[in-house]
Structure formats: structure tokens, C-alpha cells
UniProtKB/TrEMBL annotation:
Coiled coil: none annotated. PROSITE patterns: HTH_ARAC_FAMILY_2 (PS01124). Keywords: DNA-binding, Transcription, Transcription regulation. One of its GO terms (molecular function) is DNA-binding transcription factor activity. The lineage of its organism: Bacteria, Pseudomonadati, Pseudomonadota, Gammaproteobacteria, Enterobacterales. It comes from Escherichia coli. InterPro entries: GyrI-like, Homeodomain-like_sf, HTH_AraC, MarA-like, Reg_factor_effector_dom_sf. Residues 8-107 form the HTH araC/xylS-type domain. This is Helix-turn-helix domain-containing protein.
Length: 301
């Protein structure tokens, strides 16, 4: 039990200090009280990789998120993640991902090969369900709301968005369907822009519309609080996609939010995102259609 708690504490310590100083095995040995050899054995047993590899992986992965979601210059990202130079950052990033930072930022596909979010002890990787959407292009009417997000993305920077969601659900709506697209924020800021389009029946008041991307979609379901859901989505993106060899295509996602147990502050969530995978071998004809999901199909008639 003490060993387990020690590894959990080390994982949290690494996460809290990635952008504070260049963490190394010696500092963790001093902190834990274990010998270098015993610490390495424990870490590999509970996390599945050596501690040094995990630290390098988390630094590269944190920088990957900053590259995709912000306009921060490469020099700022390399300094923020405690690389000794921009050249070292570029070399390390390409070694892990196969892309230079510039290539990774500009790619139309968000690649998750060798990317990892914060891991827990004995991590689990939820298996996605797959759907294909190949319907004739149809305009879906929506109301547009724009929010600012920050890295790391937590419930604290999603307050306005969730205030809006709870207000809409309080109007006797059984569920909401929302499509979200994320855009890079200001040049020297760790923020990004979220455009959320709430699906609606056509009315005079609609201020936006969307069309679904023809694509393979990965789907996930989750029941829990809004805080737990944000943690779940972060885990899906940073850990699960890479584990299953999936990469995120540009374009809107589909998020279905339904009241579940309001006394406990719980919701039922369905989340679908367009993905691509070179290793996915199932024929499209054998996959269920995204358009056949009842809540979605009512907007496609």
C-alpha cells in the first residue's frame, strides 16, 4: 500500500512540476526515499515504463497540446517545458512523434502516436465504439456560443460553458446535442477558443448551422459529474486515442448531454469524434451508421 501511494504521489509531483524545473530521477529518489533501482522497479511495475521515459513523454505530450491548441511561439513552448534550447526541444519532439513542432502544429490530423496524458497506477483504456457517417450533406441548424479555454483544461475554465448547458437543460429539454470546434487563441497566451453549436430545430432565431463530416467516428459513453466528464475527455484524447492507434481529424465533434441523477450532479454523456486510423480494418459497410443513433437521426430527417 505504501509503495502504491508513493508512485501515485510521484506521478502527481511530475505533473505539477513539468513546467517548473527539469525533473530527473535523482530528485525523485531524494523525494521518495527509495534507491534509484527500487524506484525504477516500482514505477515500471505500476505505470508500465521507466520513470525517465515517462517524464520525457509527458513533456513532449504537454508541448503537443500547446502546439495544437495555442499560437505560442516555439521558443516560448520550449522554455515553458524547461528544455535547454529550442533546438533540443525540436530534436526531442521529432524523435518522439516523427514530426517537427511546425509540422505537428500545421497537420490537418491531430496525431497521438507516442503521446500520453497523465497516467494513473495500472491505467485503463476504454474501448471505443465505431460508427461511419456517409449521408448526403445536410444542414443542421444551431445556436452558436463562443468560450475561451485554457491549458490545462479543467472545470475552473469551463464555468461559463457549463452555466449555459445547465440553463438550457433546465428548460425542460431532455438532452442537448452540441458540436464543438477548437481554434488557436492569441499569440502569446495559453488560451484557445471553443465554438459550441447547440443543435436546434430550424427557427427564425437560429444564428448558425453545421454539416457533419463524412468520416469514421469513435464513440464513448460516460456517466458522472461535469468535473469527472472533463477528466474523462482529457483521458480519451491524451491516452485512449494513442493506445488504439487513432488520430483526430479536424472538424466538429458531437456531444450529447442528458440529465441523469441531479441529486448527485450526474449526467449521461455520449461523445463522438471524427478519427482516422491506418490499422482499422473493419469494412465501412459493417459499421453502424452514426445517423442511425436515435437522438442524432431526428435532426437529419
Amino acid at each position: 500500500m505504501i509503495r502504491l501511494l508513493t508512485i501515485k504521489e510521484i506521478l502527481q509531483y511530475i505533473e505539477d512540476n513539468l513546467d517548473i524545473y527539469n525533473i530527473d530521477i535523482d530528485s525523485l529518489v531524494t523525494r521518495s526515499g527509495y534507491s534509484r533501482r527500487n524506484l525504477q522497479l516500482l514505477f515500471k511495475r505500476f505505470v508500465g515504463m521507466p520513470v525517465g521515459k515517462y517524464i520525457r513523454l509527458r513533456r513532449v505530450s504537454r508541448s503537443a497540446v500547446l502546439l495544437r491548441l495555442t499560437n505560442l511561439p516555439l521558443s516560448v513552448i520550449s522554455t515553458t517545458l524547461c528544455y535547454d534550447s529550442q533546438q533540443t526541444f525540436t530534436r526531442e519532439f521529432k524523435k518522439h512523434t516523427g514530426y517537427t513542432p511546425k509540422q505537428y502544429r500545421e497537420n490537418k490530423v491531430w496525431v497521438f502516436h507516442n503521446i500520453s496524458g497523465p497516467l494513473t497506477v495500472n491505467p485503463e483504456f476504454e474501448s471505443p465504439d465505431f460508427y461511419y457517417f456517409d449521408c448526403e450533406m445536410k444542414k443542421i441548424f444551431a445556436d452558436l456560443y463562443v468560450y475561451k479555454g485554457m491549458i490545462p483544461y479543467t472545470i475552473n475554465c469551463a464555468t461559463k460553458r457549463w452555466d449555459r448547458i445547465e440553463k438550457l437543460l433546465s428548460h425542460s429539454l431532455p438532452f442537448l446535442i452540441i458540436s464543438n470546434e477548437v481554434y488557436q487563441g492569441q499569440k502569446r497566451s495559453e488560451d484557445f477558443i471553443i465554438e459550441s453549436k447547440v443543435w436546434k430545430e430550424k427557427t427564425r432565431d437560429n444564428n448558425s448551422f453545421l454539416t457533419l463530416k463524412k468520416s469514421l467516428y469513435a464513440g464513448f459513453k460516460f456517466t458522472g459529474t461535469k468535473q469527472q466528464y472533463i477528466h474523462f475527455i482529457n483521458h480519451i484524447y491524451m491516452n485512449v486515442l494513442g493506445f488504439y492507434g487513432l488520430n483526430r481529424l479536424n472538424g466538429g465533434d458531437i456531444e450529447i448531454i442528458e440529465k441523469h441523477n441531479q441529486k448527485e450532479g450526474e449526467y449521461f454523456f455520449e461523445y463522438y469524434m471524427p478519427v482516422v486510423s491506418d490499422s482499422f480494418l473493419v469494412s465501412r459497410d459493417k459499421l453502424p451508421s452514426l445517423g442511425d443513433i436515435v437522438k442524432i437521426s431526428s435532426f437529419l430527417k
